[in-house]
């Protein structure tokens, strides 16, 4: 790859990452979503900043960076408008975006109250011969729309659409041959991943606007996000005294009242421009406007803030076709129309359906359709775009959601069946009087009922000739490690080796100690494999492993390096499995001859999600905590309560307990947060807790230092550990009883739960303080959930609700399929039905010989991603 294309592709990756972030934030309802590492706005700012440095000539990046500096402090309406503007900047086709004429000056002109408004507008300019300012006004109803010719083309051929040729299967029709598309627009579609007429038909609307049950202007209340329809009553344009901002105000009336929409126009303007601008919104034209209702402070009249305007029909131009497609009943609104206008999309999708709809094959057997009360695919695809009424829309959605979930479940059931055919798996017998019995004798506690049950399930898998494919779910502190160790012993007893892979060095190191403690008395040795080990040490370990001296290899992903070879790998255990990519697991598996696989997770997965992601895994649950554990008392605090918390820590330390103080990752960079944690550490050690010994732990420390810090904390030499989130998973120091999490509002719920799980691991009462300035309602609600429950499942469900499944597990990591329509919470019932059907079909016809039409489902997009899941 030459340097330019390399730069290009990283930019493309960044742009699509930004696009995803925007989508997530929109779904999260503009809460400035907390990702794993940063907030949404930080992510946007940082990425833009990076791009800004890399592509200094492209002024979009500095604009975007600017837009997000104030984002966290803005109200929702402003956030919505920023998100929209970012999309415009990112996705308006390259060709329509020549370099801005006076970016610097324009930037200076940005009005203060309208964050970035003028800036953006001054940067994104059309290819047309219009003056540089005009596009920035962005008032044009067709601002996102393709050049005019296409619009005309669309409207005119309406009557010609009726196919004369026999309809073709849309999967075989290239996008450029869809009426109204053509070679130029097809490039834009292809960038969106739309290559065929079928892809276009599968570009589902985000929602529908209901023209019949529309809101009347009279009924509008401030704060609502609404869409209203009406006619333009008047358009006025005013110029500010300094002449650098113009305001265009459009009044829309619907017979019950009126509402105004204002636009600020940055940059110098003149009468000619304003007039042209006004002409785009002729009096009497029908418009649709969506935005947030507010009351003008001075005139107390209603207005729509940051409204999107769409002209529905101009005077004397109410073409019939337009009428039926764009204004009748339920009108589809499409997601992220990158360079594609709404009306344009509606029309070409309509064209594609007209031309090819008849040829769309039905793959679901009639029996399945009847059983689940589903309409036909053709009807559903029409209905999802252009429903006659709400019932049809719902029936269409139900059918398509079923398809998505069903194809996934079918794939998983098929996989399961294939696994079961694989008879060559290892068999480990559980023998009396072996390692297991001795191990139990040495163990200072009795296993809980749940631990016993799960171990039995594992032993059963190991003893059978089918390969084990089991996930152990257990809330933090439920005691998964012991069970893992016992599983390893079963394999070792039979002369095999086991591998234990953990996501962080700290955790791998801790497991190593624990396993050593348990296994050395049995005469077995363990080896530790970390990325940063010296060559000499590593060589020694590798030899010992290959020769079979080491029974259990414990490590981070360093274990999957090619040089690490086993003599006889029989069992793989993956702790905190959601932290690993699918490929990493597969690679480790390849080191043995069909080794058994045991995965563990403390991130409990709601059942619907588990069925989707782990449909081919057996799941065991450790649903009981060791006896005597008291629920952790959790309290949300503000930074003003600092002294109180410090006093509390002091009191606990006097009682012999220990505490963690966690600082979140800052600005997506571990080195910066390491720096911040270091500064806090110094402050706390010298000025706040001079009488105690504090430890400092962060990701930038050398492995040896990390080891010794953890050891000093474990041994009680340090009373307080100041740290970053490196201690998030797995760390086990039962004597610690206080967890203070600073800036708790920056974490996801599951992450807070994981962190909190570092305490409450012994019999003593433990406490967790979540420190945050939780100003917004959502932030407050999130912390409330943490205060109210210690149950990881409840928290996970809430997290799923708040963040959606992709974020929940990390789409890329889990191989989570893209579900376009299905919602794992709302569609739980459909999921159960789809699963039942899939299992029945595979049971009766495992190779789909009698259901050959279903093979399509396994091969389509969702099916492909399902393939990834198998190695989990
Ligand atoms: P997690 O499931 O979070 O990985 P661990 O395996 O680290 O939990 O166990 C948490 C703590 O509980 C450890 O200190 C472990 O020694 C202890 N533990 C595990 N099982 C029991 C038990 N049955 N009774 C008492 N303590 C136990
Ligand atoms: Mg653990």
Characterise the protein shown here.
This protein is of the alpha/beta class. The chain has 33 helices and 20 strands. The strands form 4 sheets. Strands 10-11-9-12-13-8-14 form a 7-stranded parallel sheet, with helices on both faces. It has a 6-stranded parallel sheet with strand order 15-20-19-16-18-17, with helices on both faces. Helix 3 (60-67) packs antiparallel against helix 6. Bound molecules: adenosine-5'-diphosphate (ADP) and magnesium ion. Adenosine-5'-diphosphate binds next to helix 19.
Q: Using only CA atoms, what is the Rg?
A: 31 Å
Nearest-integer average pLDDT:
78
Strand content: 5-15%
Please report the distance between the alpha carbons of the first and last residues. 33 Å
Number of strands: 20
Indicate the overall shape: globular
Order of strands side by side in the largest beta sheet?
Answer: 10-11-9-12-13-8-14
Ligands, deduplicated: adenosine-5'-diphosphate, magnesium ion
Low-confidence stretches: 94-163, 315-323, 806-816, 860-872
Number of contiguous helices: 33
Q: Structural class of the secondary structure composition?
A: alpha/beta
Helical proportion, percent range: 40-55%
Q: Main beta sheet, described?
A: 7 strands, parallel
SSE inventory with pairings:
Layout: H1 3-27, H2 40-54, H3 60-67, H4 76-91, H5 103-108, H6 117-123, H7 134-137, H8 148-155, H9 182-191, H10 197-201, E1 207-210, E2 225-239, E3 245-253, E4 258-266, H11 271-279, E5 286-295, E6 302-313, H12 320-327, E7 330-333, H13 342-356, H14 366-372, H15 377-385, H16 390-421, H17 435-442, H18 449-463, E8 469-474, H19 480-493, E9 497-501, H20 505-519, E10 526-529, H21 535-547, E11 552-555, E12 569-574, H22 582-589, E13 596-601, H23 607-613, E14 618-622, E15 633-637, H24 642-654, E16 658-662, H25 670-688, E17 694-697, H26 703-714, E18 720-723, E19 736-741, H27 749-756, E20 767-771, H28 777-788, H29 792-809, H30 811-814, H31 828-844, H32 855-859, H33 861-869
Parallel strand pairs: 4-6, 8-13, 8-14, 9-11, 9-12, 10-11, 12-13, 15-20, 16-18, 16-19, 17-18, 19-20
Antiparallel strand pairs: 1-7, 2-3, 2-5, 3-4, 5-6
Helix pairs in contact: 1-2, 1-4, 2-3, 3-6, 8-13, 15-16, 16-31, 16-33, 18-19
The structure holds adenosine-5'-diphosphate (ADP) and magnesium ion (MG).
């Amino acid at each position: 790859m030459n340097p330019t294309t390399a730069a290009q592709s990283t930019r493309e990756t960044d742009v699509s990452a930004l696009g995803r972030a925007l989508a997530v934030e929109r779904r999260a309802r503009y809460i400035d979503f907390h990702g794993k590492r940063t907030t949404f706005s930080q992510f946007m700012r940082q990425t833009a900043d990076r791009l800004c440095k890399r592509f200094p000539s492209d002024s979009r990046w500095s604009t975007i960076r600017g837009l997000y500096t104030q984002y966290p402090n803005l109200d929702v309406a402003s956030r919505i408008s920023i998100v929209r503007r970012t999309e415009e900047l990112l996705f308006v086709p390259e060709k329509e975006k020549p370099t801005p004429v006076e970016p610097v000056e324009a930037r200076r002109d940005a009005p203060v109250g309208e964050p970035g408004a003028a800036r953006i507008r001054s940067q994104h300019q059309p290819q047309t011969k219009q003056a540089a300012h005009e596009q920035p006004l962005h008032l044009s109803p067709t601002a996102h729309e393709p050049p005019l010719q296409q619009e005309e083309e669309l409207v005119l051929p309406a009557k010609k659409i009726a196919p004369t040729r026999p309809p073709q299967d849309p999967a075989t029709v290239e996008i450029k041959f869809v009426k109204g598309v053509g070679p130029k627009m097809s490039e834009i579609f292809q960038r969106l991943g739309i290559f065929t007429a079928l892809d276009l038909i599968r570009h589902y609307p985000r929602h529908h606007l209901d023209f019949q049950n529309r809101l009347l202007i009279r009924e509008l209340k401030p704060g609502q996000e609404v869409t209203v329809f009406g006619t333009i009553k008047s358009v006025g344009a005013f110029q500010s005294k300094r002449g650098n901002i113009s305001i265009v105000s459009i009044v829309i009336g619907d017979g019950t009242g009126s509402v105004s929409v204002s636009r600020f126009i940055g940059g110098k303007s003149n009468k000619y421009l304003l007039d042209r601008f006004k002409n785009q919104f002729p009096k009497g034209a029908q418009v649709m406007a969506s935005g947030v209702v507010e009351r003008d402070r001075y005139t107390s009249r209603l207005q729509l803030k940051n409204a999107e305007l769409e002209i529905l029909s101009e005077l004397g131009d109410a073409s019939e076709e337009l009428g039926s497609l764009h204004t009748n009943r339920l009108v589809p609104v499409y997601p992220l129309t990158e360079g594609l206008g709404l009306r344009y999309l509606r029309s070409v999708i309509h064209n594609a359906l007209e031309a090819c709809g008849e040829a769309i094959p039905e793959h679901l057997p009639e029996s399945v359709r009847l059983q689940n009360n589903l309409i036909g695919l053709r009807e559903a695809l029409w209905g999802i775009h252009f429903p006659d009424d709400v019932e049809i829309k719902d029936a269409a959605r139900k059918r398509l959601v079923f398809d998505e979930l069903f194809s996934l479940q079918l794939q998983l059931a098929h996989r399961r069946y294939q696994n079961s055919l694989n008879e060559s798996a290892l068999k480990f017998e559980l023998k009396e009087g072996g390692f297991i019995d001795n191990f139990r004798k040495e163990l200072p506690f009795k296993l809980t009922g749940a631990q016993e049950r799960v171990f039995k399930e594992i032993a059963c898998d190991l003893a059978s000739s089918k390969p084990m494919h089991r996930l152990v779910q257990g809330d933090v502190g439920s005691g998964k490690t012991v069970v893992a160790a016992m599983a390893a012993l079963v394999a070792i007893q039979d002369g095999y080796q086991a591998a234990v892979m953990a996501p962080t060095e700290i955790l791998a190191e801790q497991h190593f100690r624990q396993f050593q403690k348990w296994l050395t008395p049995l005469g077995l040795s363990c080896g530790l494999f970390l990325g940063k080990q010296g060559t000499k040490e590593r060589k020694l370990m590798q030899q010992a492993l290959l020769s079979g001296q080491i029974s259990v290899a414990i490590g981070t992903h360093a274990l999957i390096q090619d040089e690490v070879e086993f003599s006889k790998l029989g069992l793989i255990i993956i702790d905190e499995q959601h932290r690993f990519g699918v490929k990493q697991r597969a690679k480790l598996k390849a080191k043995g001859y069909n080794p058994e696989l045991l995965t563990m997770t403390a991130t409990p997965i709601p059942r619907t999600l588990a069925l989707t992601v782990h449909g081919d895994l057996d799941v065991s649950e450790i649903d009981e905590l060791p006896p005597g554990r008291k629920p952790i008392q959790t309290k949300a605090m503000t930074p003003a309560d600092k002294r109180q918390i410090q006093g509390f820590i002091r009191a606990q330390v006097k009682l012999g307990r220990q505490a963690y103080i966690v600082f979140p990752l800052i600005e997506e960079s571990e080195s910066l947060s390491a720096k911040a944690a270091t500064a806090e550490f110094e402050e706390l050690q010298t000025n706040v807790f001079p009488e105690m010994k504090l430890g400092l732990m962060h990701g930038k420390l050398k492995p040896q230092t990390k080891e010794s810090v953890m050891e000093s904390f474990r041994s009680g030499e340090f009373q307080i550990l100041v740290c970053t989130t490196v201690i998030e998973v797995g760390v086990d120091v039962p004597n610690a009883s206080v967890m203070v999490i600073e800036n708790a509002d920056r974490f996801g719920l599951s992450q807070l739960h994981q962190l909190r799980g570092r305490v409450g691991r012994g019999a003593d009462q433990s406490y967790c303080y979540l420190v945050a300035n939780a100003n917004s309602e959502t932030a407050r609600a999130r912390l409330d959930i943490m205060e109210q429950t210690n149950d990881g499942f409840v928290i996970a469900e809430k997290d799923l609700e708040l963040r959606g499944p992709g974020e929940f597990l990390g789409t890329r990591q889990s191989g989570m399929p893209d579900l376009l329509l299905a919602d794992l919470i709302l569609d739980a019932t459909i999921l159960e039905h789809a699963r039942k059907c899939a299992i029945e079909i595979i049971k009766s016809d495992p190779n789909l010989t009698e259901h050959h039409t279903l093979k399509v489902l396994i091969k389509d997009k969702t099916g492909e991603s399902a393939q990834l899941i198998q190695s989990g």
